[in-house]
Design a protein that fits this description.
By secondary structure, the protein is of the alpha/beta class. The protein contains 17 helices and 18 strands.
């Protein structure tokens, strides 16, 4: 259904391009307030918990949270929206300044209240939320002031419309920015709230969650029914004149549906979920920066998926920094079968995490019980097992023109299916030295048919503080013996 998954090295390379991009974030600005503490008793006045407050804080919310995420990843970020002439508005602007967010297009209105969302938290869970908000559409004069301030600067690399239905994104504002983006060749991405996606006609990507897609399509869906979701998404793309949809499906991950071409399923990152607040803000910010950096929709979605997975592991709205996101991308590649570059990126994340890396190599032609025994023994010596196999050309040079019997892609797939193996890579050389240098394992494993001095790469591993381990082999279990038995059977028939 989809092309090959982008490797972690390519995703990390895209992440490195975020610094220096310019992003405009336009939408509904909010202040997220948190009161957290312990719960030791129930109120005598009503059947509700009594929270003994130990901490109070304010964070940027809504479009301001999207802007904070863009700025945290190194993008020059310009924020546009409205605040009231009140303490919450002043606090929002002050926090934007601390986060290096340009607020020249934020319009202060004396007759409007800044949107506030107060969350009261007990131990690791939210107990209640209290909102103050004004959802009146902003006036033409306010919209004009925002747009004038934005357009006074050079065109950005990407425009994000963060719609929370609080009145900032009027039809005039949306149409003006989408037209501007098309004129200047910068993509416009929308986090929607309106159920009529025609409101966002001409947008490059719209990012509904499952409920928002259902509202727009006028029907319910099974989150796991990819074909039905993709068909509905394509219909909405056509009817609303959109470039693509990226549907977020909670534990089922994301579904990237371009206007033309292959759809892509991006599996969810398995993490403990503490709070989904702000995960959508994180997702669209990272998605937009990746698209602005030139990534295709599927690659951008993979990066956004990793960032959102980190966000739900935190309480409240947070900004994911580049170091954490880089490690998450390297640690969770879509496949165990990795190029040498992707393996190096993942190995680096294992080193940072303090994992003990075990490495072994070979042809692994005609997988048999002896191979399985060696791999299980090797895996027991550390936290992760990396397996490097000779390419077909390399096997032919080492064992003759009749080998391998099983092509390299099939050998890699069979080995990657083993639970004890964490990564498989194919090397074209006759020895694994270059791959070893990239991985820097703590333990290099070979069978006891080798002596320690015969193990290729021993000096490299030991010089870095690692060791060589020689594990026992099952008697009479080898590919050569198996090939000879097959030939003997063929000759007797």
């Amino acid at each position: 259904m989809s092309p090959a998954d982008p490797g972690p090295a390519a995703l990390v390379a895209t992440l490195e391009k975020f610094r220096g991009l310019t992003a405009w974030v336009v939408g509904d600005l909010m202040v997220d307030e948190y009161l957290s503490g312990s719960v030791d008793r129930i109120s005598p006045e009503a059947p509700v918990p009594v929270v003994r407050v130990r901490n109070a804080e304010q964070r940027l919310g809504g479009a301001a949270n999207v802007a904070r995420q863009c700025a945290a990843l190194g993008a020059k970020t310009v924020l546009a929206g409205t605040v009231g002439s009140d303490p919450a508005g002043a606090a929002l602007l002050a926090q934007c300044a601390q986060a290096a967010i340009d607020t020249r297009a934020v319009v202060e209105q004396a007759d409007r209240h800044t949107t506030r969302k107060l969350r009261v938290l007990g131990p690791a869970q939210q107990l209640i939320r209290v909102d103050w908000e004004d959802t009146t559409p902003c006036s033409d004069a306010t919209a004009g002031a925002m747009l004038k301030a934005l357009l006074a600067g050079p065109p950005p690399n990407v425009i994000i419309l963060s719609d929370y239905a609080k009145g900032t994104l009027t039809p005039h504002v949306i149409d003006s920015l989408i037209a501007y983006g098309r004129e200047h060749g910068c993509p416009v991405l929308v986090d929607p709230k309106d159920r009529d996606f025609r409101r966002y006609r001409g947008a490059s990507v719209v990012t509904p969650n499952l409920r928002e897609l259902e509202q727009a399509a006028g029907r319910t869906f099974d989150a796991a029914d990819v074909e039905a979701l993709a068909a509905a998404a394509r219909q909405l793309i056509d009817s609303a004149g959109l470039g693509a949809l990226l549907v977020t499906r909670g534990e089922h991950g994301m579904l990237a549906v371009p206007g033309g071409g292959e759809i892509r399923v991006i599996p969810a990152v398995k993490r403990a979920v503490f709070d989904v607040t702000g995960a959508g803000d994180t997702g669209i910010a990272v998605l937009a920066l990746a698209v602005g950096a030139g990534a295709d929709l599927a690659s951008a979605a993979c990066i956004a998926n990793a960032a959102a997975g980190l966000a739900v592991g935190e309480i409240g709205t947070v900004a994911i920094d580049a170091t954490r996101l880089r490690a998450a991308l390297a640690a969770n590649p879509p496949s165990k079968i990795l190029s040498r570059e992707d393996l190096a990126a993942r190995a680096e994340s294992w080193h940072v995490a303090g994992k003990r890396i075990v490495f072994t190599n070979g042809c692994f032609d005609l997988l048999h019980a002896g191979h399985l025994a060696l791999l299980h023994e090797a895996a027991a010596l550390g936290d992760v097992l990396v397996l490097a196999i000779n390419s077909d050309e390399s096997v032919r040079r080492l064992k003759g023109p009749s080998r391998p019997l099983v092509p390299e892609a099939d050998r890699a797939a069979l080995l990657a299916a083993l639970g004890c193996v964490d990564a498989v890579t194919i090397y074209p050389e006759d020895t694994p030295l270059e791959t070893l240098a990239r991985v820097r394992p703590h333990v290099l494993v070979k069978g006891q048919d080798y002596t320690r001095e015969q193990v290729v790469g021993r000096e490299l591993v030991e010089a870095a503080g690692g060791r060589v381990a020689l594990v026992p082999l099952l008697p009479q279990k080898s590919t050569t013996a198996l090939v000879e038995r097959i030939r003997a059977v063929q000759g007797s028939t």
